[in-house]
Amino acid sequence: MALPPGQRAVTGFPRFGTHLHHPPPPVPADPVITMVGALSKDVTLSVADLALLPRQELAADFHCVAGWSATGLRWEGVKFGAVYRNRVEPLLTPDAAVSHVVFEGLDGHRSVVWLEDALADDVLIADRLDGRPLDSDHGAPVRLVSPSQYGFVSTKHLCRVEFHTSRPPDPDRWSLIAAHQRARVWQEERHRHLSGRVVRPVYRTLIRPIRALSARGSRTGTRG
């Protein structure tokens, strides 16, 4: 299967990210996902409860905004759209028109996603990868998986979801590596202000040092 524009396949599925020189975060004994925002009351979904919802298997590649792709991955979990329709929609405040969703991980990483992208049929809250429970390097106990968007959208160690009726404040809006608001891989939406083709060579120079730092975090972290 062809890869999106500017992507190159790599062997394996490396731990990768600008903040991942730190070890993976500790996981609570009874992890939960807290859902807040434009709701009449907060929703708390335990990871144990999530495993009891209708399951979905998904074969999908993972595309990093830096230009590499891990191919042939097999994810398992629950469709985010099903969670939204069954657990969130009934609790929306009157006349609330959700436009954006914020996914936050135990490591502090946050991704802002348009609602229509979050509700795509291939978006999962995943707890298994290639037939095994997620390990700490790849987002245990659960993570977001949005294959049609660059990897920074797929928040690891998912613990909190916020529902907003307008775009939340964005502290990285004018940073040099300001991420595109939608980050769709087939449109090559890598950068908010520059074309994907322009930033490709710059991002590729960052792959080796970021991968080395990320591996250091993996070696010093606890597995779980």
UniProtKB/TrEMBL annotation:
<dbReference type="InterPro" id="IPR036374">
    <property type="entry name" value="OxRdtase_Mopterin-bd_sf"/>
</dbReference>
<protein>
    <submittedName>
        <fullName>Reductase</fullName>
    </submittedName>
</protein>
<feature type="domain" description="Oxidoreductase molybdopterin-binding">
    <location>
        <begin position="33"/>
        <end position="167"/>
    </location>
</feature>
<dbReference type="Pfam" id="PF00174">
    <property type="entry name" value="Oxidored_molyb"/>
</dbReference>
<dbReference type="InterPro" id="IPR000572">
    <property type="entry name" value="OxRdtase_Mopterin-bd_dom"/>
</dbReference>
